[in-house]
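User: Predict the full complex structure for these chains.
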Amino acid sequence: MPDQLLFGMEVFLNGLMAGVLYALVALGFVLIYKASGIFNYAQGVMALFAAMTLVGIMNGQVPFAHLINAVFGLHVTNFGWTVPALLAIALTVVVMIGLAWMVQHFVMRHLVGQEPIILFMATIGLAYFLEGVADLMWGSEIKTLDVGLPQGINETIDRVTFDAFGYGFFIDNLDIVATVIAALLVIALVLFSQYTKQGRAMRAVADDHQAALSVGISLDFIWVLVWSVAGFVALVAGIMWGAKSGVQFSLSLIALKALPVLMLGGFTSIPGAIVGGLIIGVGEKMFEFLVGPMVGGATENWFAYVLALLFLVFRPQGLFGEKIIERV
Amino acid sequence: MSTQESYVTADGRTIGPTVMEMKNITLRFGGVKAITDISFDIREGEIRAIIGPNGAGKSSMLNVISGFYIPQEGEVWYKGHKRPPMKPYEVAQQGIARTFQNIALFEGMTVLDNVMTGRLNHMKTGMLAQAIWKGKAEAEEVENREKVEKIIDFLEIQHIRKTPVARLPYGLKKRVELARALAAEPSILLLDEPMAGMNVEEKEDMSRFILDVNDEFGTTIALIEHDMGVVMDLSDRVVVMDYGKKIGDGTPDEVRNNQDVIDAYLGVAHD
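Assistant: Here is the predicted structure of the two-chain assembly.
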């Protein structure tokens, strides 16, 4: 096989892996949008916040250390212990559930029935607020996140492909783990929404608020639940991105990459988020590989957005979104 | 009026003691009075109708009963207890199920799933238990499914069990909504204009189902309707409202001969 083709295949596979991470972020958006019609601008920041909280807990950092030191004239920064990864993840989940409750209790509950744009603005406010809190709580320096996920080139794939084609594929172990975890997460979400009482209630709320109330579903509870699940998805996304490129504030910008994914997949479809993520991931890598050299490279920065723009023109509801039919 | 003694109707159904009593209910929207000082009761096992011309405040009254509106004055007594102000979902959890004038179904779900949501309050197994102890959750699901299938059979919607609700015609949607409310095994079933927008044949079907439901399950039914003919045939007792006030209350015959009712309602009937 010609080298160029093999290299193309490798790029394709890497694109798939990158797409999984996009899909993870997009998934968080879809969950909240489906259940409450809110486009949660803060989803990216939630991923950042989750990752920072996880690192902070693992390293035994004192939360709000700067603030405490400034107010009381102390010099505490660290509890002096480290927390095992699994326990720290569990604690972070608790924190994310607490965050979900606070978002619902202090912000969203007071905005029920408002225009979507108002709710959207509220989430923008939430994003900046949360970013500030994350900074104040855990500090702004870049941290490494190591929860014990395997990293680096997968030797087996490298060797097998080398033996077969005379060309070793470079696939990062972390990407493989991310793919497996994302798949498990999606399966778990589908099982949850199809087969549990709360899942059924969640789908009911997503469909019709009034009808949901009339069968005895508490909207408040379901929305806390949805924000908690979105927080959990944000944590998973935060762990993956954090392990890949360190926990830093630019992490919140990955939310922007989720936008074209959503436009492709549709804002209301979980499978759409997955497929959209994969298409964007593969698309931008392949485009860079095939067309990039002709136009001077750096196409990854804009490819996803142009693709999304094309979709907006020709299929505004996305691949899997609900068809927009306006009755007149 | 609110006697506690049970009696048997001419067609052999037993009407029990009062299950719900509205006492001097007044509901305002800003300066507009939607309901003014209305009292009436609903007795176990009866079909109780609230009628009146458009804008009489019937729907407001239904929304007060189901907790969607909280009245400024008056008391709601349910099963012998004064009911504190409640959220609609809490009222539903207490056993008051309802349908809506403009149909509120879960359009994206199948008929079966829609009716199953009516059982949510009867599912006790918690989220974690469902994840860990699959057997118990399954047994519960099977039990609920059996009840739901019975209702689906009863309302003759077996043939559309797996059809997404969005694809159904209007009359069938109304019936699915009735099935969902019935699945909750409610103490009181509230029907908001169950015959609105239906043709004669559909109206006859719906009337038959309402009577059968009441007869077969002994369900207490309170319904709102402005089709006088239908109401008179269906109900045991009728409350008549006009401009937010109660102008009549009694058996269909009593109401039919009430001069206020004739003036306010029948006198201006267009058909």
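Chain A touches chain B at residues 195-198, 200-201, 203-204, 206-208, 210-219 (CB under 8 Å).
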